[in-house]
Amino acid sequence: MIAARSVYGYFPAVLMMMAGCGGSKTISVSTEYDFLLGLDTAEIEAPNPQFVRPAFAEIGDTAYWGIYQHAPSVVTFRDVYVGEGGEITFSIGILPGAWEHAGDGVRFEISVMTDTQPEITLYSRYIDPKSTPEHRAWLPEKIALETVQNTTAAFIFKTWPGADSQSNDNNSDWAVWGNPLLTSSGRTIAIQPARNHNVLLITADTLRADYLGCYGNEWIDTPTLDFMAKNGILFENCLAASSTTLPSHATILTSLPPYQHGVINNNYRLAGKAPRLPQILREKGYTTGAAISVYHLLNDISGLGAWFDWYEHVDWQGENGTYEVLTRAGAVTTRAAIDWLEAHSSRPFFLWVHYYDPHSPYRAEGEYHRRYYSGDPRSPEHRSMENVLFHQKLPSSSFNWIKPYTDVEYFRKEYGAEISYMDFQISRLLFTLEQLGLEKNTLVVFTSDHGENLGDHEIYFDHWTMYNSDVHVPLILYQPGTLPQGRRISDPVAHMDIAPTILDILGEADNFLAKKVFEGISLRPLWEKGTLPERILTSDGLLYTAMAGRDGRLKVIWELRDAAYHDRFHLELDRVWVLDLETDPQEKNPVACFYWEDEEACPDYRTRVKAAAQEITGEDEEIVQDVKLLKTMEMARQRASRKRIPKEEEFRSWFEKGTDGVFLREEYKTIPDFIPRVLKIMGVMRERVSPPPLTEKLRDVLDITELEDDQLISNPLFGSQLRDALQGLDYVR
Q1: Which of 192, 249, 342, 431 has a CA positioned 20 to 30 A from the CA of residue 625?
Q2: Is the distance from CB of 55 to CB of 325 less than 8 angstroms?
Q3: Position 178 pLDDT exceeds 50
Q4: Where are the domains of the chain?
Q5: Dihedral of CA 11/12/18/21: which sign?
Q6: 3-state secondary structure 656-687
Q7: Domain 200-360+425-530 bears CATH identifier 3.40.720.10
Q8: Residue 675: pLDDT band by 50, 70, 90 thresholds?
């Protein structure tokens, strides 16, 4: 195949344009079939079908996403198109846990058949790592499809225990096909001349801004995102809605903060009636799609899939209904998104693509592994992991991926390698837009849900704080010919501004539903006029445990109630930190710390919480604990909403009492506007910790007489009919 040159790099594809009827064009694109993506619909024959599933498998020093296919089993992929010059690339291996006690090895086979051709064997190889040391690694393979081209075929993957199909010793035949992929050329698709205005929203999981080249990182390769920033708009200070995946994504789609849309952790579900960006766009004639990479964004868990015509995801459940595979490779998500783009390029679309790759455990796939790290990360000479602490409430097995390593730098480097892998996947999406002639007609928005602590603030490999390591995220807008090039904007912006900005660029700034419900604002004035109205942005912590508020320079972190992370972190009730981001961007030297003294009932409050929890009883202990947590959170929220904002002199007096840990640095005592600014931020946070129920926003917006799958349609209706009907609706706060 010919490598097509793109501004994003070289890719295996052939790109040709030919005139067609009615102004349409035909382009020739690469045929790529990802067998891992096709596993959801493949036919499986096995004594235990649950033992055929996706897997992220480490064999030797390399890990691949692939298909775990315990022998004996047969997996048939039907209706696979093969163009010209086709080949299948893959690796085979047996998981290390079976090497010492495996039976008599595994035979891997691939066969093919078409409507006109009987089944023929394309590949067969027997490996036995127990007796053959050379087989204790991934074994790369390639099959040329010389006899199959320009047709649709069925490919059959087989694993047999032993050297042939007669063996029945399958005790530990843990066979894996690593990254099986079919590519060919010559496939043509018809496209219409691009006249549509489209949106491609890309979100990365667990990506902190300072690990991208365009945000100042000097050792991680992120050429695609750097290209977008150089030729688009980069926002230097974007504040995440939360430090957790689902709450932030719910905010990105609804332009509401977590404490208002009600999704305050990953196991919460967005109310079906909550208005959101894909709803507005679908009502305007857009086709809407999403490709996600982690199970807690699944619609039946998150509720985010409402108003998407297509919501493609990891969907591999065991016999008991639990998810056997919780995440999937970025390459698989990319392939699903590309297939959808090719099928829907003729009409306006909104496509959301989510990548999970930078998330822990940090283990970059294939050639990306150890891209930035040399040496032995397990060497006893390293001492940097000796003082690393973790969440004491988690089982010890949760840290098995950490235990073998002694160098903390290894994890930072692997995290960076995963980011580079994701950057390449994004380049595939942009190249597809280029192939389809949609580059100038598609607004590309890139952000992440939250960051990650990699030793920052003595927190390792997790995200739960209100520090910038958790809530400072990238935000890049890219659309050549429509948006300015190379603009860097330092003004603080937020996740909730993304949806209004998209609508404004699409010409829908006056959308009735958005103007009534969305909390964010369009960022267009920043690149057209250089200004936005002065405002205070907030980020909501999990389960009413914390909140951050910031204006242009100052940041206030409010710890709402008791929380223990591990022995080094015991958070006192209502402790508040003040940070100066201009002089201390790493947030290592707070300028003030105090306790929000609104009452003398702190011990009494704890007593009341304990008494309320003791009143909750039941036979199911798990349910009891959940209800107790909800009760505790509700009491914390109510108490926080009643906080009193002190007068300036009273506030100054808090620093004179000599209470342990309370301080205000001398140089800030004489800054005229310092204390008024802190008090203003405190006031905004107090209001936002307990916002009005969503029903208050919706009273004059939604016509409850028109329902679509229990979702309210955004037709304005005023008067008592709507008000009366809303009384019976069960809304999330």
Answers
A1: 249
A2: yes
A3: yes
A4: 28-191, 200-360+425-530, 540-691, 695-726
A5: negative
A6: CCCCCCCEECHHHHCCCCHHHHHHHHHHHHHH
A7: yes
A8: very high
